[in-house]
Amino acid sequence: MSTNNPFSGTAKCKPTTQCIAVHGYGIARGGYMCACKPGFRYPSGQHGPFIGFDLEDASPEVYRERFDCIRIIDQIDGVEVRTKRSAGRDALDEIMNKLEEITLDNCHLLPYEETELDQRFLYMADMVLRTQELAAVRTANFLSNYLQNAYEDITIIDQNNEELKSRDLTEEQLFGEVLANVVADGNLFGSAILFQSLAFKGSTGRFGPYAFREPAKGERHFYAEDFAILGGYEFYFETTQKTPIESLDRFYSKIDIRARRDGSGAPSTMNVFTNQTYLAATTRHGKWNQPFFDCFHGNWVVPYFVPFFMNTKNKQSVTFA
Between the CA of residue 226 and those of 241, 271, 302, what are the distances in Å? Predict the structure, then answer.
């Protein structure tokens, strides 16, 4: 097990089993499975690996009696001792102490550096937080596609010889996107789309629709505001603007447009959108940042940034939005 992982050795898997991380659980205790090691089998009645949450919730007596694999040969000569367990528990205690020491009451009194966790705590973030990572990439790529292909001067003619003009995204639509991200994922604290100054058409400066949850007020309490008013997200632009345009991936899509404005009838195949392409980022362009304590909302947050791109003025290339 890698020593770069601050949680190394903290799982309760027994020596006859090996720990397998379960994606999507972040740093939640129990987000793992214990599978039999080679040369061992599951006891009668056990179908598949032992679930980490079951081990964490088990009483000492139940833990001693269960969760062991059986050696395939008759005689067990000995058992392997997990020498990393003690060190792993010490590391976990250190983490938990820091998480408990920083609160809304004292956060504003501390230097920013003391409200962060170091880079070790991003170990395997791209695996355990894969669902949240893909949600960010999906949102960024939707924006890249729309901003590069649905600009105002596109006009198509439907089968009734009527003009259909593309429209710019509205503020309400973008607030709807970030709010949908948060509502759909209980492990996602907040979602934001951050535009540079004047990059969003109709804005007089920066625009940053931001939606977040308020766990203290209940699971279904969500809020939305313009992040540009809060400020303090220069680090996002400093991180994402370093993405080389030549490293972006080119995506191809085909949009079927229905023959009538009311949506009835079979989709027509208009060549205007048959070979639609756009340049966009993937997970390799995204950036995980150090976890920090959010002094406004009282939560520990692990930020993930992924850039999106719009056409240049002459529409010959793309630029960071």
Answer: 21, 38, 20
Contact 136, 286 (CB under 8 A): yes
DSSP state of 314: T
- Residue 224 corresponds to which tokens in the numbers above? 């939305």
pLDDT attached to residue 178 = 92
Note the pLDDT of residue 252.
84
Torsion on CA atoms 79, 84, 85, 91, rounded to nearest 10: 180
**In DSSP terms, which residues pair with 161 in a beta bridge?**
none
Residue type, 23: H
- What pLDDT was estimated at residue 81? 39
pTM of the model: 0.65
The rounded distance, in Å, linking the Cα atoms of 51 and 70 is: 17
Residue spans of beta strands (DSSP E) within the chain: 17-21, 32-36, 40-41, 50-51, 70-71, 155-157, 163-165, 190-192, 209-213, 222-226, 249-253, 257-258, 267-268, 276-280, 287-288, 292-294, 299-301, 304-305, 309-311, 318-320
CB 29 within 8 A of CB 56: yes
pLDDT mean by block of 10 residues, the chain; 321 residues: 63 90 77 89 86 90 89 52 49 74 86 80 78 92 86 61 73 91 88 84 80 76 82 72 86 67 54 68 88 83 89 77 78
Find the Cα–Cα–Cα–Cα dihedral 262, 268, 271, 275, rounded to 10°: 90
CB-based burial of residue 239 (10 Å sphere; 0-12 exposed, 13-18 middle, 19+ buried)? middle
SS3 210: strand
Looking at residue 75, what is its pLDDT? 41
Residue 241: Cβ within 10 Å count: 11
pLDDT of residue 269: 45
